[in-house]
Amino acid sequence: MRFARVNGVVIHHAVRGAPDRPAIVFSNSLGTDFRIWEAVADALAGDYRLVLYDKRGHGLSEATPAPYALTDHVADLALLLDHLGIENATIVGLSVGGMIAQGLAALRPELVERLVLCDTAHKIGTDELWNMRIEAVTKSGIASISSQILERWFTPAFRAPGNADFIGYTAMLERTTVDGYAGTCAALRDADLTESTRALKVPVMCIVGDQDGSTPPDLVRSTARLIEGARFEIVQDAGHLPCIEQPAATAALIRKFLQQ
Asked: How far apart (Å, rounded) are the C-alpha atoms in residues 202 and 216?
């Protein structure tokens, strides 16, 4: 395990691969930690230097008091890359991780070679949605709404009671700190990246699961259309987290994009 204090918060992270390899940085979604990327990272290992990290309030990273702004998460990642001496990387971000990736490309464009935006958008959800989430988890804990979240995350086949992986990812969600979850809900509520994302000039690929209930394909497609030259790909038989349900297909799309 590796930890670093950056931007006033301790961030848990992992680095794989030789320093002279092209860097790929993975940013995870709300209510998860960097273990969601393990199968994708395994498929890409050897050819790249891989950085995985838990954003603040998630996994083993420090949970500062809520609320957070998206710029807090963006600065955390920028300063983590500075700490690691990574000057240019492909940023792969899922959901809020994808918004962090977009924000990093706008704030510190010199750090970003390419973007892979998974199941994300320039604007996600409404004030009402995020305020209801914040109130529910603050009063009653994440478990009180986890079933609703998991229905958006995963396909019906994955949510089968006998699927041990589904039980494990349910535990990952429900063990997220309340500050981390509610704080990041506030960051999502307050973030609208439409104009900065429209101005992006780096190569971008947008990916979405065909059964994503959180950021449906049409929403992700609308983000791809904002960005000149962006590619758009749909992963079949996947919900909001194709890196979990379809890691081989997700990794293949990333590898192909990086080789072009």
From this structure: 24
H or E segment and range at residue 188? helix 178-190
Task: State mean pLDDT over 36-52.
Answer: 97
The span from the CA of 108 to the CA of 115, in Å, is 13
Is residue 183 within 8 A of residue 38, CB to CB? The reply is no
**SS3 label, residue 121:** coil
Looking at the 3D structure of the chain, how many domains does it have? 1
pTM reported for the whole predicted model: 0.98
Residue pair 173/55 in contact by the 8 Å Cβ criterion:
no
The sign of the CA dihedral 185, 107, 99, 46 is negative
Task: Name the residue range of residue 178's domain.
Answer: 2-259
- CATH number of the domain enclosing 81: 3.40.50.1820
Distances, alpha carbon 177 to alpha carbons 142, 188, 247, in Å = 9, 17, 26
Residue type for position 127: D
pLDDT band with cut points at 50, 70 and 90 for residue 161: confident
Q: What percent of the chain has pLDDT over 90?
A: 98
pLDDT at 119: 98
> What are the strands, taking DSSP E only, across 48-177?
49-53, 89-94, 112-118
Residue type, 101: A
CA torsion 95→96→99→105, rounded to 10°? Answer: -110
